[in-house]
Every structure is written in C-alpha cells, then in structure tokens.
C-alpha cells in the first residue's frame, strides 16, 4: 500500500511486531519490572506518606488523586523507553533495522511495527500497575474498567513521539535531552501530583499540549469521577495527536535508511502544528487574575451567627468563591456565577476568556462558632469556570485566596446547637399500602446535636420510644451531626389515621434538650392506596434561615430507605 510515496504494509508492520514479541518472551519479567516499579514506588511513597499530610486534594484522598496520573505515567514510561533507548540500539548498534529492510519488510513497516510494539509495552506496564493499585482503593467508579483500553491511546502518543525524536538524532547522547527537557517537565506539570488551577495561565496553556496531561485527565475521569464524557474529550485529543504523528516516524526512518522522499509531509505537519498552537494560545490568552478581600461585618460571639463579606475583583469573567475554611474544622464549598461554555447563572457560547469584562462580586457568609478563641478564615476564589453539562465546573480559571484572623469571645456553647432536630414519617415516596399492610420509614436528624430518641404514637393508641443505638461523638470545635431512622411495618384496615413522631436531641451528656413534633394525618383506601389527609403539623415550625455550620433541613429529606435498619 502506497501512502504519500510510502511503502506501508500492515502485514509487514505486524510481522515486525511479532519479531519483537518473540524477543520479549525471553526477558519479559526483567523488562516489565524495570519501568513498572517506579510509578508503584511513587504511589506508595507519596500516596501513603505525603497523603498523611495532604488529607484531600480536589475533594479526593491524595492517593486516589495521584493514582490515575501514575497509571498514565506507567504507560508513558513503557512506550518511551521502548521507542528511545531500545529503538536506538536496534537501529544503530545491533543493526536490526538494516537486517529487517533486507527482507521484504520496508523501512515504513519497521517504523510502524516499532510504534505498535511500543504501544503494546505501554499497555502491559499500565495493566500491571492497574492491578497492583486495586488494593489501595483508588477505583471509585466501574468506568475504571475502560482504563485498560485507554492505555493504548496514551502508549500510541508516546511511542510516536519517542520514535520521531530517536529517528532524527545522530548521537545516542541526545536522548538524555529528550528525557530531561521533555519527559521530566511533563511528569511534574501535567497534573499528576497537584491540580493545575493554582498555577499561572501560561503553565496551564502549556500543559494542554502535553499528552500526559490528557492521559491523566482521561484516567481520572474514568477512575474517580465516573464521567466518560469528560474522558472522551481527552481521548479525542490523544487520537488526533496520534493521527498527526502517525506517518512522521516512517517518513524520517525511510529518509535515514534508504534516502527516500517524504520531507514535504513532515514540513506540512510542522507548519500545521505551529498554526494550531498559535491559535490555541491566542484563544486562551488574556487570562488575568482575581483578588480576594475579607471584611468582618459583625462581632463574633460563641453560639451566635457572625457574618463576613468576601469581595472579589477579576480581570475577566464572573469571580466566584470555591471554598471557605472557617478554622474550626468546618469548610464550605460552592460554585456560582458564569459557567463558561455550559449552564449556570449565565451562559457564554464561546470560551474566549479575553472577551469577558472586568467584574467585582461580593458574597456574605454567616457562621456560628462553638468555642472561644482565635480563628483564621481562608477563602479561595476563581476568575471564571468552564462547565460541560453539570453544575460543578470541570475546569477553573486563575485563582486567588485571602485569609483573616479574628477573635471569637464568649463561653463555650452547649453540645446541642440552636438548630432544631428534624423528623420525617409517612413520606410520599417511601410509603406503600397493600393487602392491609403499610410499609414505611421514620428518619430524624440534627445538624448540631445528638438525636437521642424518636417517640412514635401509633394509630392504635400505643406509644413507643426508639433510642438511637449509635454512640454520640462530640467534636472539639463543632457540633455533632447525627441521623437515626428505621423501617417499620403495620397492618391496618382502610380508614382515616394519624401518626405523631417526636424527635429528641441533646448534647452527648443528655443536656440542652430540643424536640420537634410531626403529626401526619393520612387515609388508607380499600383499593390498596393511601394519601395524606390534610397538611402535616410541625412543632416548632421549620426555620428557613441558612447559617453555615448549622444548616437547616430542606422541606423534603432525601434518604435511601434501604440503608435504614428494620424497626428495633
């Protein structure tokens, strides 16, 4: 088959792949361990060692965060080592290439077969790492099964890049520059060990051109997020990059070994790549910065709501708070405002950041501290965010942060805070009636106290108190946050009934009690149906005030009944 004056034969490339596989069978164990074991060491040393100091990164345990990137690194090492040092040795030292092209195989067959073999080595190294990583609990989604075929995409990119450089150089010493100036910076700045949203805009733009970055994002989307759509965009980048470089190694190797033609294609690819890079850098340029300031709006006393105001100024876009740490163990996270390229309070059809205006935004936050002391509040914000079909952004713009230290006065508050307990029974979604039997569940909770018991007055006149079997835990600076519930079954004839449930919350010592009473009237029908009869009575009425640290319960408490035990 002739393509751009190249003598390409898939069967010839396959025969060269078979030649390499036969040789590999003799030393497969040593060859596999050499470059597979380094990412495993990083996983253990940094995931378990450094992970003890970095509790979470991007909402994930540190070992879970770095594992997808190290899986991509395993594939990168497997393909790169094979297509640099090994390929140079076969081409220049042992003269395997010369021997092969003396057979019916062409130079192009050798180059494509070498790329195919490098891809295979990458998948083998990555699969071994993937199996070893399973006991560490780094897989959070069944989509992680697709990481095995995804290894071939990563391997193909690095195999073609490695061959391109190897076939161009004239001395083996130049391979050291490839590893030092290309592989090492990519290993450090591709998002394997830390998120890139804290780095300058030009670094994030540069990372976009790194195949390891897209390999890491693809693996992370499959292993932790379970979002195949996001992984698909990274896979598309890898496929396009592989297609661009697919014929470059055969062209260079033919020129090197048999003085053939094909430099025009290499020149066209280089020009096209330069134009594409210029366009992308131009579109992503114009990123500015976001500054954050914090002002204390009210005096802070224990057990009373205090307010701070966060003011953000951004060069472009609509700035938004991403997280706020209160210094007492509580942390709030939220995203709001413009979502570039996706849904949000506003929508922009094209993610051209430089067109967004300079914007100022202010947000008030309310928090309740339990104990007196000095607290440092830290706020993180971003200039804008990219979204793709979900409320949470998949990519952030430039970020900024600010912190403030202030004093909280007053006596230590009780272990049961101001928020009332909540109770739910006879929920419309989780109650059924059939053949004279009612199945339902009761659920109670308190965001700043310990739910000690639920007392239910049944329609037959009996009353029973159900005690919480879970032990109360009293945090040092915050409040207990507990839930307690169970499933129940009763046999009742059709008719009009009502159930009263009383949730009692206290502190861990049994003091500072609070109660919430819910009375639900309902009717059972002969045709195995039931309906609420009138509005439920809630005592005291539910507050709608939202206070960070003691949030109120929404009107409909969503809980999976299958997780509740049966009636004790």
Give an overview of the whole structure.
With 568 residues, the chain is of the alpha+beta class. It has three domains: 2-262, no CATH class; 290-408, Immunoglobulin-like; 422-563, Immunoglobulin-like (Sandwich). 38% of the residues lie in helices and 25% in strands. The chain is built from eleven helices and 25 strands. Strands 19, 20, 22, 23, 24 and 25 form a six-stranded antiparallel beta sheet that branches. A four-stranded antiparallel beta sheet has the order 8-7-12-15, with no helix packed on it. A hairpin with an 8-residue loop joins strand 5 and strand 6 (305-314). The model is unreliable at 260-264, 281-286, 341-352, 388-394 and 543-562 (pLDDT under 50).
Could you provide a short overview of the structure?
This protein has 568 residues and is of the alpha+beta class. Helix content is 38%, strand content 25%.
Topology:
Layout: E1 2-3, E2 6-7, H1 10-49, E3 56-57, E4 60-61, H2 62-93, H3 96-101, H4 107-133, H5 147-168, H6 175-189, H7 201-208, H8 211-225, H9 228-245, H10 248-258, H11 263-284, E5 290-296, E6 305-314, E7 320-325, E8 331-333, E9 339-340, E10 347-348, E11 359-368, E12 373-382, E13 385-386, E14 395-396, E15 399-408, E16 422-425, E17 432-434, E18 437-446, E19 450-457, E20 463-467, E21 482-491, E22 495-506, E23 514-525, E24 529-532, E25 537-539
Parallel strand pairs: 9-10
Antiparallel strand pairs: 1-2, 3-4, 5-6, 6-11, 7-8, 7-12, 12-15, 13-14, 16-18, 17-18, 18-21, 19-20, 19-22, 22-23, 23-24, 23-25
């Amino acid at each position: 088959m002739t393509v751009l004056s190249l003598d390409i034969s898939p069967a010839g490339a396959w025969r060269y792949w078979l030649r390499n596989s036969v040789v590999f069978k003799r030393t497969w164990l040593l060859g596999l361990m050499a470059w597979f074991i380094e990412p495993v060491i990083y996983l253990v040393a940094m995931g378990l060692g450094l992970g003890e100091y970095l509790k979470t990164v991007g909402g994930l345990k540190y070992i879970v965060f770095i594992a997808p990137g190290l899986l991509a690194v395993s594939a990168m090492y497997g393909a790169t080592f094979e297509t640099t040092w090994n390929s140079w040795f076969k081409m220049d030292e042992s003269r395997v290439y010369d021997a092969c092209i003396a057979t019916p195989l062409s130079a192009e067959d050798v180059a494509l077969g070498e790329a195919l073999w490098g891809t295979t080595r990458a998948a083998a190294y990555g699969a071994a790492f993937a199996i070893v990583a399973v006991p560490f609990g780094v897989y959070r989604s069944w989509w992680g099964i697709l990481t095995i075929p995804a290894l071939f995409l990563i391997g193909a990119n690095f195999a073609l890049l490695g061959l391109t450089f190897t076939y161009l150089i004239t001395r083996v010493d130049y391979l050291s520059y490839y590893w030092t100036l290309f592989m090492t910076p990519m290993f450090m700045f591709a998002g394997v060990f830390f998120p890139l949203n804290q780095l300058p805009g030009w670094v994030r733009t540069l990372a976009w051109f790194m195949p390891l970055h897209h390999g890491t994002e693809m693996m992370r989307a499959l292993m932790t997020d379970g979002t195949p759509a996001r992984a698909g965009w990274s896979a598309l980048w890898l496929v396009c990059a592989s297609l661009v470089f697919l014929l470059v190694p055969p062209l260079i190797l033919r020129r090197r070994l048999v003085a053939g033609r094909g430099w025009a294609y290499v020149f066209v690819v280089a020009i096209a790549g330069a134009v594409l890079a210029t366009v992308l850098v131009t579109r992503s340029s114009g990123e500015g910065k976001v500054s954050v300031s914090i002002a204390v709006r009210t005096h802070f006393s224990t057990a009373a709501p205090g307010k701070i105001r966060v003011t953000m100024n951004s060069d472009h876009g609509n700035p938004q708070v991403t997280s706020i740490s209160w210094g007492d163990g509580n942390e709030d996270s939220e995203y709001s405002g413009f979502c570039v390229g996706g849904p949000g309070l506003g929508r922009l059809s094209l993610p051209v950041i430089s067109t967004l205006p300079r914007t100022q935004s202010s947000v008030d936050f309310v928090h309740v501290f339990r104990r007196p002391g000095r607290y440092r509040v830290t706020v993180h914000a971003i200039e804008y965010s990219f979204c793709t079909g979900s409320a949470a952004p998949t990519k952030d713009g430039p970020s900024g942060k600010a912190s403030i230290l202030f004093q909280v006065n007053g006596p230590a508050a009780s272990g049961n805070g101001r928020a009332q307990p909540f109770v739910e029974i006879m929920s419309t979604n989780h109650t059924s009636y059939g053949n004279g039997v009612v199945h339902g569940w009761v659920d109670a909770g308190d965001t700043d106290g310990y739910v000690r018991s639920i007392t239910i007055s049944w329609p037959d006149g009996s009353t029973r108190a159900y005690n919480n079997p879970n032990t109360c835990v009293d945090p040092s600076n915050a409040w207990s946050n507990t839930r307690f519930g169970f499933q129940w079954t009763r046999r009742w004839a059709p008719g009009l009934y009502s159930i009263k449930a009383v949730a009692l919350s206290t502190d861990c010592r049994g003091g500072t009690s609070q109660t919430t009473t819910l009375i639900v009237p309902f009717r059972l029908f002969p045709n195995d149906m039931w309906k609420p009869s009138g509005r439920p009575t809630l005592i005291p009425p539910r507050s709608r005030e939202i206070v960070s640290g003691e949030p109120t319960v929404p009107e409909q408490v969503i809980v999976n009944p299958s997780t509740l035990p049966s009636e004790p």
